[in-house]
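Final report, closing paragraph on structural work. Over the funding period we assembled a curated collection of sequence-structure pairs, and we close with a single example.
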Amino acid sequence: MSNLVRWDPFAELSALQKQFFGDDWLSPLKGVNVPTTDVYSQDNSLLVEAHLPNFDQKDINIQVEDGALVISAERHEKAEDKSKKYVVRESSSSFYRRIVLPKQADAERIDAHLEDGVLKVKVPLTPLPEPKKITIAAKKK
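Its predicted structure, as stored:
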């Protein structure tokens, strides 16, 4: 009888992962609230919806650079309270998304507005020209 066992190199990696990170190595990220970004097309437009709760309009920057729509947001808070044990309490949040725009995107007509913590950016798309059909000439005899 043969007791051959197929060696699985990933089984050893999995064991190491469990040893160092536990069974649930993503658990440190469970408490982190990552803002969602939806990108979809509708009515000859590319629509981008970025969920940015707790950000004000002044915190958000939108620009087009190198054929991409770049949305960034940064918020800083600073509070002083002499009655508590800390003197200064600071917190900050940031957001960054870079979305490559299609060739037919009209960067001059991009429209954006913020409502109830959701940033909506509308990128109009110009129709692509019809492809030019090339006729094949017959060989002269």
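The mean pLDDT is 82. Residues 31-124 form a domain with the Immunoglobulin-like fold (CATH 2.60.40.790). We thank the funder for supporting this effort.
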